[in-house]
Design a protein that fits this description.
20% of the residues lie in helices and 25% in strands. By secondary structure, it is α+β, with helices and mostly antiparallel strands. The relative contact order is 0.11.
């Protein structure tokens, strides 16, 4: 059980009264402090990354232990924050044990940070051994517009859900800028949201981007600030990797137990949405696509999550800012999954300003049904243009009543592993009937969507396929 604040203050008062604290007051840049963070980044079975930003070119360390009293604590190597990195640092904790709770605190210039020093050490947990069967909880979301919602009441809901990992699926900030300093300032503002702090300090955070944290609205590979956006992204996230040496971007793979994540970059190589679709039109680019195919083929996880900021279904239509404008590449990827008999693929996406559960019935082409699970927005008013969109199959009515976060309960220990998708609203309520997907559903030749679609959505779909209106006259309860 975590140590209380009162007990921690008694135990650490001597440490906090070190001479180096007094020296900080005389420092020519003023009080030495953590400005944003700390934030947990990627954790593995034996290591962890911690991100933070400090008030100048200061030496930063993390002390960590399996005890909240910090007995037998170790320290990371000191890293000096650099102005060219906006004084952000990533500290690597090594020599950890898998699936184990640890505690950490931050040192600046050799002393506990004066602003964080009154807090007990922050807890976090390492990942299980890669491939280990068990239960995993993954939360995710997109579209955090601080300009519209500076309070962001979704974060206490996420914190209470106690996910093992949180995934940011793009539009993590709304930079909408052509200058680096505005990207950085928007990251600082978002990273400083009060309700977000308990989430980022203890729950590992992983991220990909979408248009508003890549550049301007709907920006693609022609963006004049693609490398500025990439530089800011690398400064403010602690992912395990960022693209490949010869293929820049934000894509990477990540494993948590027996779940493999394929985090995709849907912007850096993206052709303009309005280009005619065909074999030469790409969202991922040749290098990233070849990497993805190789990684998928090598995976033995019962669930493989393909994570992209853009929605995977046809819902938005041709030339829109989604995979619906890149169906040739999308369907070729799905055909590869079918032909190589790659089982267990589930799609995650953001961007749409509603939470959705849609299905692409690839079983009709000899594969299996692919589910696109979407959470959006984390922090702003949901949109209403979803009413005009038509995905291949809508499994649940979209969650449009409030901001939301997605939560995946994944059980890989069962004889038939399962993934349950839940949408949580800002009151912490389950907003729609959960969608349960079994590993046995995700095999070639299996048609599973008829057993998962909401009865009201089935009636709407049948009426629409017969030439009638989709929504009228049925009212969703």
């Amino acid at each position: 059980m975590p140590i209380s604040k009162r007990s921690f203050l008694k135990l650490s008062s001597a440490a906090l009264a070190t001479p180096s604290i007094a020296a900080q007051a005389q420092n020519p840049i003023g009080k030495l402090r953590v400005m944003q963070g700390p934030m947990m980044g990627a954790v593995s079975p034996d290591s962890a990354l911690i991100w933070l930003r400090v008030s100048g070119p200061l030496a930063v360390e993390a002390e960590y232990s399996t005890s909240p009293l910090m007995s037998d604590a170790r320290r990371t190597a000191a890293i000096t924050a650099k102005p060219e990195d906006d004084h952000t640092v990533r500290l690597r904790l090594t020599g950890l044990e898998p699936d184990t709770r640890y505690y950490y605190r931050i040192y600046v210039e050799g002393a506990p940070d004066d602003y964080l020093g009154d807090s007990p050490p922050f807890p976090f947990k390492t990942a299980p051994n890669t491939g280990a069967r068990g239960t995993v909880r993954i939360a995710f979301g997109s579209c955090a517009r601080l300009q519209e919602d500076p309070v962001q009441t979704i974060w206490p809901v996420v914190h209470r859900a106690e996910p093992d990992v949180f995934l940011w699926l793009g539009d993590n900030i709304y930079a909408d800028s052509l200058t680096l300093d505005i990207f950085q300032e928007e990251y600082r503002r978002q990273r400083s949201v009060a309700l977000l702090q308990p989430v980022i300090r203890s729950i590992p955070q992983l991220a990909v981007w979408d248009d508003h944290d890549y550049g301007l609205n709907n920006h693609d590979r022609t963006s004049p600030v693609k490398d500025i956006g990439l530089a800011a992204f690398k400064q403010y996230w602690a992912n395990p990797a960022y693209g490949l040496p010869q293929t820049p971007g934000v894509f990477f793979t990540y494993s948590y137990g027996a779940v493999d994540l394929f985090m995709l970059d849907g912007r850096y190589y993206r052709a303009p949405n309005a280009d005619p679709d065909g074999p030469d039109k790409t969202m991922l680019g040749d290098g990233q696509l070849a990497w993805l195919k190789d990684e998928l083929k090598a995976s033995r996880a019962p669930f493989k999550l393909l994570v992209c900021g853009s929605g995977w279904s046809k819902a938005k239509g041709p030339s829109a800012d989604a995979w619906s404008a890149f169906l040739t590449e999308r369907d070729a990827l799905f055909s590869y999954i079918r032909d190589e008999q790659i089982e267990g693929v589930v799609l995650l996406s953001g961007d749409t300003h509603v939470a959705e559960a849609n299905c692409i019935p690839f079983s009709e082409q000899g594969g299996y049904d692919l589910y696109d699970l979407t959470s959006s927005p984390l922090a702003q008013t949901p949109g209403d243009d979803w009413q005009e969109r038509r995905p291949e199959i809508r499994i649940r009515n979209p969650v449009f009543e409030s901001a939301n976060a997605g939560l995946l309960h994944i059980d890989t220990a069962a004889e038939d592993p399962s993934l349950t998708y839940v949408v949580l609203d800002t009151n912490g309520r389950v907003a729609r009937t959960p969608v349960v997907i079994a590993a046995s559903d995700l095999k070639n030749g299996v048609t599973s969507w008829p057993d998962k679609i909401d009865p009201t959505e089935r009636e709407r779909l049948e009426r629409y396929r017969a030439g009638g209106p989709y929504y009228f006259p049925i009212e969703y309860p």
